[in-house]
Amino acid sequence: MNAHYASGYGTTAALVGFRPTLLSVWGSDVYDFPYESWWKGRLLRWNLRRATRLASTSQVMAGQTASLAPELMHAFITPFGVDCERFSPRDERDARHLTIGTVKTLAPKYGIDLLVRAFANLLDDARFAAIDRQRPLRLLLVGGGPDGDALRALAEELGVAARVEFAGQVPHADVPNWLRRLDIYVAASRSDSESFGVAAVEASACGVPVVVSDAGGLPEVVDHGVTGLVVPRDDVQALAHALGSLVLDPARRAAFGSAGRAHVLQRYEWERCVDTMVSAYECVVAECKR
User: Which of 59, 171, 189, 239 has a 20 to 30 Å separation from 102 between CA atoms?
Assistant: First the structure.
């Protein structure tokens, strides 16, 4: 049995005592839940110890899980897979604009406010004036969430509202089309519960260069200086500098996009990740037969 979320179905699996059980952790269950109260922490640790083996989408989350129950065997790393036929390069960019953007829930932990501030810094920097005259910079925010009104107010306050497009929430089936409109994809998360960074992988699969923070599992999916750039979390200046370096260098953007696509095909293509998951199942079953 493969149970998902150590704080949810992990409890059911632990109570039933089914063997063998592979327990997959996903983020909030190991980053947030065990610290909400002493009894939640105790329950979470009990659930982890009752599983035959554990699985995590990233190395960093596997490390967090190990800190909760260090006596357990290291978790299998079972990353998200991407359908590289659906998420594929196809130039749908508006040639009139140079578009920076993200596809993410508009919530505080994802650092969308940092992206708006970094974008405003670019527009205030004289080094980008010539480029801005040729291809005006714009910011595209795709996603709904509780911070929508606050982010609109922030854009107004910073004087960039006319350059920021809020696309709202879109069906996942439409995400590839939105990603292809971007010249640069940004994931500026400030939270370690960003356990993998699937949206950054999807952007890379579409041939879009990425800039991510060093939060959670995001650095694991970006080869810094090859497929994109990794910047310190909560650092608007560092984010603006990284974006500016790509705005000024279209050849580097193209190289990052091409290398990012190759990186995803090698490590995160759907079938490869399915094989990794099946291999974990086979190992768990084999261990229980010994």
Answer: 59
